[in-house]
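Propose amino acids for all 445 sites.
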C-alpha cells in the first residue's frame, strides 16, 4: 500500500512523517467504501443494495473521497509506524485531510513527539558546596522550649487580661459608615493567640489590656502600602471578649521526657535525643541542598529537547493535584481565578519552566540509573519494611496493609533506588566546604 515514507525531525523532539500511498491503494480504499455505501444506501426508486454506481458517485462521491481518505490514513499510518526506530509518544496529529483523487497517489503528513535524545553531562566529579553548620546550646534550648510549648495545656488566665501570647476567644463584626453591623463579617467564637496567630484585622495591639466580657469599638486605619485586603481603608470593628486563657508550660524534668516518648526516662535522655535530632535534621537539610545544587548543574549541562506533549502532560498532572489540594471542584477553582482576573492558562504558564526542569531531571536520573545499573532488591525492601514496622510499633503485615499493600512495597522499592542514586552521585561529587551558617537560618532556607 505504501509507496514511500519520509521522516523529518522538527523542534521539541517532534517528527513530521509524510506518507505516499500507491494509486492502487488509494483507489481500493475509495472503491471499498463505495461498495459499502452500495450495500446500505436507500435511495427512492431503487431497492436497497441495487443503487447503480454512477448514482452513488453523483450523490455521495465527494463525501466518500474524504471518508475513504480518513480510513486510508488510519491503515497506512499503522503500516508506516510498524517498524520505526523511534515510536511516537504522543498521538499523531494530521496536518490536513486531503480528499482522494482517483488515478493519483495519496499523500498525507502527520506530526508526533518521540522520546527525546539525551546528551548527558558529566555526572561524576560535579563540584558542589556543603554548608557548614554548628549546633549551639541556644538551638538545643530553643528546641526544648518548643517541646514544652507543644506539651503545654491551656488554662484560664488568672487576671483575665489580654497580653502577649494570651489565647483569646472573641466575637466581632465590622461596622459600616452608619455604624450598622455588616452581618456578612460577623464572627462568633473566633479564637487566636495574641502575637502568634494572624488576626484577620491585625488588631493584636488594640486588644491588649481588654478583659473577659469587655466590649469596645476598635477603629483602625490601614496604610496604602500594607499587605492587607483593607489597605487604604479605615475599619471599625465591634468586639467582645468571651474568654482569655494562657498556656501553662510543663517543667523541664523527667516527667516531661516521659511524656514526649515512652523510650525516654530522664531529662538527660530527652536532652540527648534533642541533640541527636537537631544533628539529624541539619544533615538531612544539607544533603537536600547538595542534591539540589548537583541537580541544577546536571540539568544545566544536559542537552534535552523536551517534547511539548511531555510538558503538557506534566502540567496537567500538577494542575489536577492543585485542584485536589484546593478542596474545590475544577469549575469552582477556574471561576475563582477568573474573579481574580486570572486563568488556568496563566497558572500553567507560571509552572512551565519548573515542569521542563522536572522532566529533564527525571530523564537524566533515569539514564544514570540505567547506565550505572542502580536498583533495589526485594530483600532490601523487606528490611526497610521491618525497620518502619518497628518504628510504628506494629507487625509488618499490618503496616503494609495500612499503607496500601503491594503498592506500598513498590513505592519503597522506588524510594530506596532513588536514595542509592543520590548516594552514588554525592559519593562521586567533588565536595568543597561552603559558608558557615546558623542552624536556624539553615532550617529556614
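Proposal:
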Amino acid at each position: 500500500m505504501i509507496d514511500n515514507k519520509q521522516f523529518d525531525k522538527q523542534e521539541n523532539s517532534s517528527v513530521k512523517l509524510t506518507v505516499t500511498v500507491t494509486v492502487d491503494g488509494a483507489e481500493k480504499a475509495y472503491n471499498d467504501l463505495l461498495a459499502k455505501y452500495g450495500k446500505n444506501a436507500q435511495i427512492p426508486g431503487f431497492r436497497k443494495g441495487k443503487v447503480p454506481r454512477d448514482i452513488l458517485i453523483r450523490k455521495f462521491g465527494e463525501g466518500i473521497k474524504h471518508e475513504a481518505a480518513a480510513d486510508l490514513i488510519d491503515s497506512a499510518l499503522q503500516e508506516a509506524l510498524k517498524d520505526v526506530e523511534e515510536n511516537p509518544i504522543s498521538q499523531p496529529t494530521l496536518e490536513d485531510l486531503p480528499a482522494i483523487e482517483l488515478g493519483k497517489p495519496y499523500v498525507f503528513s502527520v506530526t508526533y513527539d518521540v522520546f527525546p535524545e539525551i546528551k548527558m553531562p558529566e555526572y561524576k566529579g560535579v563540584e558542589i558546596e556543603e554548608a557548614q553548620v554548628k549546633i549551639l546550646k541556644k538551638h538545643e534550648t530553643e528546641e526544648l522550649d518548643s517541646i514544652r510549648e507543644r506539651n503545654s495545656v491551656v488554662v484560664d488566665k488568672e487576671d483575665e487580661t489580654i497580653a502577649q501570647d494570651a489565647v483569646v476567644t472573641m466575637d466581632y463584626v465590622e461596622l459600616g459608615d452608619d455604624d450598622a453591623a455588616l452581618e456578612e463579617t460577623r464572627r462568633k467564637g473566633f479564637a487566636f493567640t495574641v502575637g502568634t496567630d494572624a488576626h484577620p484585622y491585625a488588631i493584636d495591639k488594640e486588644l491588649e489590656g481588654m478583659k473577659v466580657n469587655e466590649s469596645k469599638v476598635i477603629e483602625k486605619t490601614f496604610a496604602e502600602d500594607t499587605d492587607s485586603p483593607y489597605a487604604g481603608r479605615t475599619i471599625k470593628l465591634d468586639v467582645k471578649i468571651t474568654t482569655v486563657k494562657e498556656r501553662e508550660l510543663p517543667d523541664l524534668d523527667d516527667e516531661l521526657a516521659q511524656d514526649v516518648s515512652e523510650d525516654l526516662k530522664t531529662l538527660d535522655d530527652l536532652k540527648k535525643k534533642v541533640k541527636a535530632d537537631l544533628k539529624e535534621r541539619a544533615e538531612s537539610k544539607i544533603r537536600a541542598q547538595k542534591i539540589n545544587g548537583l541537580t541544577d548543574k546536571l540539568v544545566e549541562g544536559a542537552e534535552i529537547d523536551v517534547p511539548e506533549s511531555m510538558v503538557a502532560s506534566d502540567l496537567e498532572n500538577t494542575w489536577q493535584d492543585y485542584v485536589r489540594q484546593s478542596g474545590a471542584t475544577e469549575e469552582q477553582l477556574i471561576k475563582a481565578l477568573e474573579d481574580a482576573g486570572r486563568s488556568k492558562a496563566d497558572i500553567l504558564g507560571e509552572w512551565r519552566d519548573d515542569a521542563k526542569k522536572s522532566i529533564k531531571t527525571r530523564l537524566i536520573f533515569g539514564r544514570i540509573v540505567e547506565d550505572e545499573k542502580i536498583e533495589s532488591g526485594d530483600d532490601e525492601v523487606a528490611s526497610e519494611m521491618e525497620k518502619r514496622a518497628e518504628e510504628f510499633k506494629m507487625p509488618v503485615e499490618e503496616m503494609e496493609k495500612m499503607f496500601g499493600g503491594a503498592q506500598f512495597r513498590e513505592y519503597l522499592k522506588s524510594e530506596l533506588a532513588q536514595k542509592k542514586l543520590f548516594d552514588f552521585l554525592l559519593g562521586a561529587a567533588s565536595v568543597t566546604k561552603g559558608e558557615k551558617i546558623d542552624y536556624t537560618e539553615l532550617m529556614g532556607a
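The chain has three domains: 2-115, 153-248, 256-444. Residues 100 and 148 are 81 Å apart (CA to CA).
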